[in-house]
Each structure stands twice: as structure tokens, then as C-alpha cells.
Amino acid sequence: MFESPRWVRISALVAGVALMLLVPFYADTFWMQAGLFAIAAAIGAIGLNLLTGATGQLSLGHAFFLAVGAYGYVYFASESDNHFVGLGLPTPVAAILAVLLAGLVGGIFSPIAGRLKGTYLGIATLALIFIGQHILSNAESVTGSHNGRQVPPLDLGFLVFDDSPELVVANVPLGAFERLWFLALILLVISAWVARGVLRGRPGRALNTIRDHEIAAGVMGVPVARYRAAVFVLSSMYAGLAGVILALVFRQTVPDYFGIILALDYLAMIVIGGLGTVAGAMIGAVFITLLPQVLTRYSDGLPLVAAPGSGGFSPAEAARIIYGAAVVAVVLFLPGGLFGMWTRIRLAVAARRHRAV
Amino acid sequence: MKLNIRMSAAVLAVLLAAATGCSDKATGGSGGTGKDGVKHGPGVTDTTIKLGVITDLTGPYAPLGKGLTQAEQLYVEEINKAGGICGRKLELVVRDAGYDVQKSMSAYSELQGSTLAIPQLIGSHVASALKTRINSDKVLTIPMAWSNTLLGSEYLQITGPTYDVDMINGIDWLVKTGAVKKGGTLGHIYFDNDYGASALLGTKYAADKHGLKVVEQKIKPTDTDLTNQAGALAKQKVDGILLSVGPAQSASAAGVARVAGFKGPILGSNSAYAKQLLATKAKPALLQGFYIATAGIPIQEDLPALKKIRDGYAAKFPGQPQDSAVVTGYSSGEIIGNAIKKACASKDLTREGLIKAHRSTNAFDNGQGGTLDFTYFDKPPTLQTFIVQPDEQAISGTKIVQNRTESELVKGYKVPLA
Amino acid sequence: MTKFIELVVNGLSVGSVYALIALGFVIIFKATEVVNFAHASLLLVGGYITAVFHDDIGFLPALAAGMLTAAVVGMLVEFLVLRRGRTSDHGVLAIVTIGVDILLTTELVRRIGTDVLDLGDPWGSQSVTFAGITIPQTRIAALLVATVLITAFLLAFRYTTWGVAMRAAAEDSETASLMGIKLSRVSLGAWAVAGALAAVAALFLTVFPTPGLDRNTSLVALKAFPAAILGGLDSTTGALVGGLIVGLTESLATGYQDQLHFLGHGLSGVAPYVVMVLILLARPAGLFGTRELTRV
């Protein structure tokens, strides 16, 4: 009702996109990497939001599907040698297969998910994390165990997402991170667009009804079990895609990363951002990913200068404290998450302007 | 109109962002040549040389990280007091990654553009994850882990023998002292990571050569109750127990084994002991029949180089434990310092110049008794191991039982590369 | 055979400690319907206070202090944080407890630092041997104390006014409140009891054969989750049984890991979760949990 005119919104969008496209020409390696982590997290968070925010299926196992995507890509794309096995497929094919694999695994788990409700489902998905860690550290020839495996860079023929065949645009050398940035952005836009389409259409309404009044949904003719399974598969595919991007950024997959802390991080992302919305998921992902990076980068790098045992906080500890406090504060005081707050501010500003007119 | 304000704000934001975010990416970063004709690499200016440290001050390896980092700070302070190297002051850029891979990668991304070398990197899985980038960025890095998986890369320099070499030397010592005889059995409890895997390689080799059997017990780094594992080994009446685990697990295993009636020797890898353990209930089990195979010389030994470190550290960090991390940290500073000095003599403080200088050192001697050979990287720079024992009175918490030795057994051993 | 018996006794003893943690978890859930992810930090607080004070005031007073502190912290969390939650969506409140857990754990770990703290228990590394089986005294003490506490609690739950009030509130909070039961008192009580139980659990998790309390101790509390779930989140009996099952599974998996070698190494970490999933497949609300009946 109090939205700004269409052309203003479009120009803001265009400016935003332009800004995003300019980043690789100015940001240093640290920010490129942080940004890529944030974009991958955003894609994963959008998927988790479809599952938990929209459909009410609490999942603590999202990090598992990220691992499936990452390790799947490495397995499909690497050649076999005397240490590891791999299928040696062309890397774009491997990437697509990895995403499909994540979806498949999600599909296999979904009947179990279908039988469980609420917290029971949450902790059962937590089991996936532990099972995943167990497999990752034991299946050495596939996963490389704790040291992980090298990730083959994505090769599209005309463009390799690596540092070596040099690519210079506008006098700026574009390395692997810069090239991945553009790819990741495109994937993020597509992911967000698809998710939005799902949520705004009939499937979205069906999912919300399943979340809020499952029996009523069933009575009304919504194929509840099929939808719950389908959203599990879709959400796992999003996680798989995020995992592939992360693998390409890390250049070496390590099992430690895909543990319980990451799982809880994703949950925090969608709640802090705003449950149920795509924009919320993205905002939450960016916030949760960048906050610790910013804190550790810009606080003093020599925390031991103070006498030991004194009341000082090291940057890493300060980062955790602020993160925990942010989770508590946002959930308690901003029920719609950060996106909800943004929407309220926007509407309040627009409303005041309207009244003044 | 109000709408124009919004438009202009958006455009302004873009311009601002474009202007403020501007780094010198378009021109290719730091470099060039200094006033004294010395070529500069990243992190080098006419007045400073920046060195990066990726450490753990808040995670599971915090005790190690703290000792290493503080010792490196001591080294840098002393060097700068004496005028620096190449007329430039050294500066440490410390980043705490808490043993977390993502944080370590972020720290590396930041440091790779702004520092010349990395004298400390904690986490062998982190080092493995970063290996490709370290090689392509040509950053001389000292990982603080001694697994054989870190060999084979020109830019990774470990500063002592690998865990398998230590184990071989240690088992050889056990056999020589008669504690373990041919035909006997050794029980090895080890971590499920490349620390444990590396040590196990050594055990298997030594056992094979000495005609010993090996019983393996793999545990996760998060297990702290070793009742089942140590109890099982005691029940099987093994002749010796080997521990390639963390300090907490060693305390648990030693305690359980002794209570279960195990009377043989217990030998740990260098990461299996920490001085703090002597303040816990595990003390009695650690003071009797518990030994550690390590490359690090205990800091209380009577050498002028060590006295210098002791006094300097006590002055700068009074009351803090002076354990093996302090010696290792200080030495890592000296190793990089040595490379910088040599590179300066060739007027080349680029990354290429630094690695060339470093790899030309075949007998690095910092007064601690042994020498390190950096000209090759497919094996450790030395094959000598100390056997030490926990000691309450000693400053480092350990005292020497057998001085540095390269056993005959290990001479024939080829350390497997990753 | 002796190996098996030792493994079983060990497993039951560790399991009874898990049951203490799981019981606290279930009490909170029953009273407030919140899944408490901050339980690990309650455990750590209790253990830390005991460790810090046992030198000055003796073991038992220090333990009491630890239990009291954990109880108070639990009540504070309930009062300051959860009650203010504007949303009544319990899933979201659970996330708040994640945040609280991060806050508390970070601060405690910062204080513990790199030390390994002794809690001053009187049993040390002494053991009891009979019929060829050696069992540490600490394990026997754990089993006994846990049994006493759990029995006391179950009796209180059944026969005291407070217990009845809590059961009523868990059954139907609206009606209970209409009947004059102060829901706020019930939830405060629940969090306090959970904290106290966690403090006792902390003691038994850090005695022989572990060297003491250190920064990783809180991770052990995580094992109570599968215990509480497979027993049924709203069943106190379930928590007990669940804890024992998890303890036994862990112990047997570690003891027989050679024979189970084909399933990979490090089985003891993942085995409880696998058992939990298997049980959930057969009983989706846990062994003793009540299956949700929804009104249409």
C-alpha cells in the first residue's frame, strides 16, 4: 500500500546489481573470500528456509547436504589415482550431478523425515551430521579423510575458474575468487528467483498450510507426504549447490567444516534473517557469515598484549559473544528477524511520508 | 521531489562504495624495489617486513598457540632492538583462527596479500587445505604440526622430525633399554587424524624391524575417557603402550593403565604431554614410567642460546609457563629470520628470493645443539629425537632421559610423502 | 566374559550420568515446551564453580555451590531471556537457547582457558576388583548417586505438590493456570532442577578416568540429546532409559570396535545417533513419548 513507485524500486535494484558486479574489481582477497562464503551461505539458507521456515520441518542436518554437494563434486570431477577414486567427469557435469546427488540423498531421507515431527525431526536430522562426519573420516579413498581432497577447478572450456590462465579485465587481474564471484552471483539470483516463485505460488501456500495446519491441509486435498518429501529434496539440492560453491572456494574439502557448528549457524541464519522469506534468508546468511570475519579482521590482532588472565576478550571470543548476543536479541526483540525489521522501517517511513503529503 | 533524493542517494552510494573500496588491485599490489636496491615482495617496505601468524588462541590448541606466538613476539622484539634485518623492522601480524578451517582460510587470504612469509600455521588439516594456494602464492610457511603429509611441498617447512620418525626412535630406545623385547607386543592408541596416522606408520615400521606385534586403538580427538582402550591393552598384557593423542587423553590412558595393573613403559608422541597435567590427579601416573619422544630440547638445558630465551621470555611474559612451545616458537622466528638475512644479502626480498635463500641453508644452527637441513623438503630437516620424562621441578615440565639420537633403525626408513 | 561385564557396568555408569543430563533436559521440555540447547553450558557452570571452590571450602560444599549456581543460572535464563520472548513459537525459543549457550560457553571457556581443572572428588583413581572385574570407584559412585537422584526426583514428581503442579502444567497449561498453578513458578523450578542435575553430571564426567574439567567437557553434554529423544522428549522414564541405552551403546561400540571394524573407526560417536534413528523409525515419538494427537 505504501510502496514506493515502481521505477524507483527498479533503479535501486539496478544500482544494487551494479554494485555487486563492481566488487571483484576493488575488493581484496580477504573480502572476496568472505563474500563468496556469504553467497554460498545465502543459497544454502534459502533452501533451509523452504524446509524449515515455509514448511515447518525443523532440520539441523543442512550441513550434511552441503557436505554431500561438496564431496560429490570432488568425487565426480576428480580422476582416480593411487590414493583416491573419482569418476573424472567434466567439471560442469560433475557440479550438476553433485547437486542432484544431494537432492537424491534428501529424497532418501525424506520418508524418515515424514514420520517425525518437531524437535524429534530436528534431532534426527542432527544424527545426519554425525553420520556424515563418520563417513567422511572413514571413506578415505573417496573423501580423503581429515585432510580432505583437492577440488578440481570448474572448467567451462572458454573459462577456467582458477588463477592460472590469466584473465585481465579493465587492467584488473581476475583470479579464481573474482571469477567465482560472478558465477556465484548468477546462481544466487537464480536460486532466489526459483524459491520466490515456489513460495508465492500454489506450492508455497500449500507448504505454509502444511506448516500451520497439517491435518486441514490433508483434508483439503494437499498431498502432504509428497509435498514434504519434495521440499526436502529441493532444500537438499540448494544445500548441495552451496556445497559445490564452497568446495570451489576452499579448493580443498575438509570434513571438519561440515559439523554441528555449521548446522546451528544455518538455523541461526534463517531465524535472524526472518523465517519464511527468501530475502530474510539471504540477509541472515550475510549477517552470520560476515560478522565473525569483520570482528576478527578489524579488532587488534595482538590480543596478548594485555596481561594474561585479565578481563580482556580476544577477537575470536568477542566475535562469538556478539554472535550469541545477536541471536538472542534478534529472536527476542525482532520477531520477524532482520528482514521483518527492514520491512517495518520501510513501511513506517513510507507511511509517514504519505501522511505528510 | 522526494523521489529524486532517493535516486541520488542510490547513485551516491554506488560511487562512494566504488571510491572507498578501492584497493590498488588495478595496478597489481605491492612490489617494486626499495631505496637500497632490494627487491620487495608483499609485506615489505623500506622500513618494515611483515610476517603473518595463523594461530590458535581460543580453540583446542590454545596452549600451543599462546606459547608459540609469544615466543615469536619475543624474537621479533629482540631483533628489532638490535636494528632489525636488512635495515627493516620485523612486524608480526597475528590472526587467531581457533583451529577452524574456514577462519584459517580467511586469515590466509588476508595475510597472503600483506605479508612476506608465515612463521606459524596451526593445524595440519589446515595446512593440507591451504597447500595448493601456498604453493601457487609461493609463501614460505612453517606449519606447527609434524605429520608426514606436510612433506613434499617446497614452501612448507616443518621444523623437526615427523611423528613417525619420533616413534621409530622411541621404540628403538624401548628395545635398547630392554623394556620391550623381540616377540613382544606394543599397544598404540592414536588419534583419528594425520597426527595419529603418521605416528602409526612409524610404529608399524619399527615393530616390523624388531619383530614386535602391534595392537591398534583408534580414538577421536573428542574422546577423553580412555577406560575401554587403555583397559583393553592392559588386559592383553602388552609390553609397552604408545600414545599419539592429546594431553587429556594421555592422562586418562596412563591413569587407567596403571590402575589396571599395567607395569610396562608408556611412550607418547610430542603432542601427548602438557605441563598442566601435573596439576591434575593424573600426576602419579605421569611421573613414573611415562616417556615422551620429542624433537624439542627442554628449555632448562644448560646452553647459552636457551638461557637467552628463558631470560627474555621471563622478562616479557613473567609467570607464564616456559614449555616446548616457547622453544619451537622462538626457533621458527629464527628460521625465517635466517632466510630473510640471506635473501637480503642477495638483495631480493621477494617471495622467490626468500625461498631460494631458505632452501640454500643446509646446516641451520641456532645454538640448541643440533642442525637442520633445509635444502630438501621430501624428508624432515633432521631425524634426531629426544626421549624425555615429565618432571615437576623442571621449567619445561620435562627432563632428558636420552639426548638427541638418530637411531640406526630410522636411517633406513623412508618417510612416505602425502 | 569379564570384558563384556566390565563394558556393561561402565556403560550403565556413564549412561546414568547421561540420564541425569537427559532428565534435566526433559524436565525443562515438559514444563516449558522449550528444547534447551543451553544445557551444555549449565553443566559447564556447575562443574566450573565446583572446581574453583573445592580447595577453599571442601568438596561437598563446593559441589553444593556448583549445583546452586547452575540452578540459579538456569532460573536467570528462564526469567530474563525466555519469558521475554514475544513469540510463543517454541521452535524459535529453542534458537534463543542456542544463543544463550554460545554466550555462556564462550565466557566459561575463556575463564577455564587452557587449564585442566580438578573437582576435588574423594574417590581419585581407586578401584574395586571382584571376580576379575575392575571398576573404578568413581563409576560406582556415579551409578549410585544418579540412581538416588533420579529416584528422588521421580518420587517427588509423583507425590509432591510441586511435582503434581509440573505434571499438570505439562499436560495442559491453560487449565493448570486456571486451577491456580503459578506457571512461572513451575518453569523456574524446572530450570533450577535441571541446572542442579547438570552440575552433578559435570562432576561425574570429569572424575577418573578423565583428567578433569576442560574446555571440551561441554561437548559431552551433547550426548544427552539422543538420550532424551529416543526415550521421548516428554517422558522422565524415557530420559532414564535413553541415557542408559546411549551409555551402553557407546561403551559396547568402543569395546568391540575391533570386531566392528568394518563399519569404520570411531564408531562410538555415531552409534548412539544411529540407535536413536532406528528407534524413532519404529516409535516416532521415542520409546515412552506421547504421540501427538491433533484435534482437527
Polypeptide structure, described:
The complex is a heterotrimer of chains A (about 350), B (about 425) and C (about 300). Chain A has about 350 residues and is an all-alpha fold. In chain A, about 70% of the residues lie in helices and about 0% in strands. Chain A has a single domain (about 5-300, about 310-355), classed as ABC transporter involved in vitamin B12 uptake, BtuC, CATH 1.10.3470. Chain A has a two-stranded antiparallel ribbon with strand order 1-4. Residues about 300-310 of chain A have low confidence and may be disordered. In chain B, the strands form three sheets. Chain B has a seven-stranded mixed β-sheet, with helices on both faces. In chain B, strands 3-2-4-5 form a four-stranded parallel β-sheet, with helices on both faces. In chain B, strands 1-11 form a two-stranded parallel ribbon. In chain B, helix 9 (about 285) links the parallel strand 9 (about 265-270) and strand 10. Chain B is elongated, with a radius of gyration of 24 Å. In chain C, strand 1 and strand 2 (about 135) form a beta hairpin. Chain C has one domain (about 1-220). At the A-B interface, helix 1, helix 2, strand 3, helix 12 and helix 13 of A face helix 1, helix 2, strand 3, helix 3 and helix 4 of B.
Features:
heterotrimer; A: 357 residues; mainly alpha; ABC transporter involved in vitamin B12 uptake, BtuC; two-stranded antiparallel sheet; 14 helices; 4 strands; globular; C: 296 residues; 12 helices; 3% strand
Total E-strand runs of chain C: 2
What's the mean pLDDT score of chain C?
84
Overall pLDDT level of chain A: 84
Number of discrete helical segments of chain C: 12
Our estimate of the beta-strand percent of chain C is under 5%
Count of discrete domains of chain A:
1
Assign a percent range to the helix content of chain C. Answer: over 70%
Number of helices of chain A: 14
Q: What is the ordering of alpha helices and beta strands of chain A?
A: HHHHHHEEEHHHHEHHHH
The second-level CATH architecture of chain A is: Orthogonal Bundle
Q: Which outline of chain A best applies? A: globular
* Structure summary, number of beta strands of chain A: 4
- How far apart are the termini of chain A? 15 Å
Write out the strand line-up for the largest beta sheet of chain C, numbering strands in chain order.
Answer: 1-2
Task: State the assembly state of the protein chains.
Answer: heterotrimer
